[in-house]
Specification:
3 domains, about 280 residues, Transcription Regulation, Sacy, Chain A
Amino acid sequence: MQILRVFNNNVVLARDELGREVVLTGRGLGFQARPGSAVREELIARRFVPADNPDSVGQVLADIPPERLRLVEELFAEAVRDLGATVPALAVVAVADHVHQAIERVARGEPMVYPLRAEVAHLHPQELAMAERLLARLNERLGLDLPQGEAIALAMHLFHAVTGSASMAETFVQSALIGQIFDTLARAYGDRFDPASIDAARFAAHLRYFFARARTGTQLDDQVGAVGSALQARSPRAYQLAQRLRALLEMRLDHTVSDDEVVYLALHLTRLESGMSRARA
């Protein structure tokens, strides 16, 4: 690999064996290096392959102390794995930059205020609970006192990692779409629908992994036609509502939703209806 730019002693931009621009980190990787020189590959600790703006990614990483980057990567990766997902490399860059900026803001006496706690707790309870644990561990390991509000931002970074969305902007679009879907369920079921129920949380989790599949162009394809026909007969309301959600998802995501995905949406809605019936009994 050949160095294209040296950001500091620990971060360089290089061209790899496939001709891609990659950002490399490693202690001493950029020390006395020059554009055009070969990368000392034994020093590489991490490799990031940005789809665009590699210079910006390199500059962000150059501003973060290496030990801080390592710690955030370690703890964030554990949290993402606990949510059942793998860690996109660039999600580590985004959350490390966020934590670094949060630390700098607190040092300046300028903590950020996050007004979205109720919304995040409503839409992403699993990510928020994990983010609160992540924040506590960061504070403990760094010897800091980052405010509890930072858990809101960390929850959205976890949601971003789980869904594999291309950017935090796309993450907020997907979060808003879950909110729209929950609003649709509330209109359909009225007060019977409890967004804090375990069945609602499972439904939200299904949507998160649907977004992750949609991101990679894959969908469920289990040939469940017979199950779909049985659901239409046994739970017509759930199946009709699943079709309405299909239309909403197709409109917002601008691609088709398979029949099998609709069946799984209907199965989750049937579970929701069963839970609402038990709650009223």
